[in-house]
Each structure stands twice: as C-alpha cells, then as structure tokens.
Design brief:
8 strands, Rossmann fold, two-stranded antiparallel ribbon, single chain, Dehydroquinate synthase-like, alpha domain, alpha/beta, 6-stranded parallel beta sheet
Length: about 375
Amino acid sequence: MSRSYGSPGRYIQRRGEIGRLGEHLETLGRKPLFLVDAFLYEKYAQSLGDSLASGFDARFEKFGGECSEREIDRVTAIAREFAADVIVGIGGGKTLDTAKMTAFHIGARMLAVPTIASTDAPTSAVVVIYSDAGVLQEARNLPRNPDVVLVDPEIIAAAPVRFLVAGIGDALSTWYEARANIDAGTFNYIAGGFPATRAGIAIAKECHAVVMAQAIKAKQAVEAGVITQAVEDIIEANTLLSGLGFENCGVSAAHGIHDALTILPDVHGLLHGEKVAFGILCLLVLENRPESEIDDTIRFYCTIGLPTTLAELNIRDDVGVKVRKVAEAATKGAITHATRASVNPSDIEAAILAADAYGRAAAVG
C-alpha cells in the first residue's frame, strides 16, 4: 500500500526565460558556479554574467564533454575552491548530470537550464555516469531533484531538430517502460524505491498521449523555424512529463538495451533517445505486445526519423557477435529485468534481431 513521488522544486517554461535567470537565482544563492556546454560557452558566459544583478559573485566553467568520474571530480574541486552555494547547469543531459553531482557533493542548490530537449535529465535526481570514452558505467540516484528547471523554448527550438526528435524517442519510452514496471511489480527511484503513485502513472500515460498527438507537428514547426503550441507541448513532454514519468514509475529493457549498446563504438555517434527508441522496439518484442502496437510504433519512427534497424544504429558488420555482446551486457543491468517477460541473454538477443527484422521489413514495404 506504500508509494512515493518525487519532482524538481519548480519547473518554468517560457520564451525568453534565460533572460530572467537572475530572478530565479535570488532565492537559491549568491555565489553561482555556471557549468556550460563548451559550444555554448562564448554565447552565454559574458551575457549571463552581465545580466546578473550586483550582489552575485559568479564563476563560469566549460563542461569537459563527458559525465565521467574525472569530469565530476574536476568540477567539484572548482566548486569547492570557489565556495559555490548554487550550481547552474546550462546545456545537454551530460552537462546537467555533472552539475547535479557537483551540487550533491558540495551541498549546494541546483538550477538546470536545458538547451536541448533531447532527454529528461533536467528534472530528475538520477545521474548517469560514463567512462571517459563514453561507455555507460552506472546510474546514481541522488536524494534531491534540482531546485529549479528553467526551460526557454526559443533556445530549444534553435537547436538542430535532431535533438528534439531524439528527445521524442526518449519520451516515448516513458509509458512503455512504466507499464513494464507496473506489470512486473517493480519499484520506482524515489527514496530507495516504492510502487508508483497514481499521479506518476497518469503522467507517464499523458507523456505518451502528447508525443503521439503532437510530435510530428512539432518537428515540422521547428524545421520551419517557428514555435507553436505543438512545439511547447513536446518540449514539456520530452523534459517534464518524461522525467517525472520515468523517475516515478521506473525504466526497463528499452533503457537497459540502450545502456548495453554503449559498449559498441559503432553507436557512439548516436544520441541517447535514438538508441532508446530502438530499445523500445526490442522491449515490445520481448514482452510479445500486439503486432498492431509494434507496427504503429515503427510507422511513427519512419515518419519522424527514429531508427528502426541495427543498420541505422551503425551496426552493419559482425552483427551476430555484436548483438550477442549487447545482449549479455544488457542482462547484467537490473533495469533490463523490470518486465514480466523472461530476460536472459538469448531472450534479449532474439528481441534485438526480431526488432531489426521488423524494421527492415517495414522499410521494404
């Protein structure tokens, strides 16, 4: 009968909100350390520094490119030396995860400013740590979510549309994996793990509904250089609904297969949500979901531009050997087992190869 729910302290999504960042910092601290994606550093370091009111003592630092133990230690040392009382992460998921770990290590507040809507990292207390080479090492659950998540749709829509589409792939996994956890009776990631609340389940369902209704329209609008209601809705789905849904309900084999895929250098050029999207197909096969559900998902992918085959993941040679390695790695992760389906290396291998076959058949058809 127990249950638990977690969320960030505040979520604000409004055009031009980056210009109001100082207002949100007022209640968090006076010595902010800004961790900024390297390719955004020149754009934001000077302008944001100038926009802060007197009374703030700010420092800006470039993100090193990977959320690894080495990078976390480096940024934490800088934050300690500076005596930062709030960490501001500006960038993609790995930048924000590094900022979250830094804030945790030094006991500071945390403000997340995503510049792309490609993952649900901004809202969660989960941090995914990689090796310096980009191979996933572990996921850590922190005791607190970010204090404030500040989302400026003008920044999100200005990024390459591929990031938005990848976020759609990640968001689409929210309900499929929530359903897998509910069916399996596994726990979420709040306070050590509890059954999902009705609120968490409802959010996961709504995330799926918004994605299916608005994703294609949102992609077309961003490609046209405009922000519409569909774009605003998809930004919320990719960032807030997906983040609340996965953290409060749990992830499953779609993310487990994604994590295992990172052992292959072939896929390192792909985005998180692109690999997760293929993992969804594998999960649907693994759970023997209705053919119509699999077909509808593949058609959606083909329309919006998400991968449906191993070749689209750049896995084109030694396929059998690589898939076997991925299957073995996936079953070592606990999240892969958060499903009612049987999970062993042969099950995962079969699901991957079958999903690839369905995708190739759809492309021919």
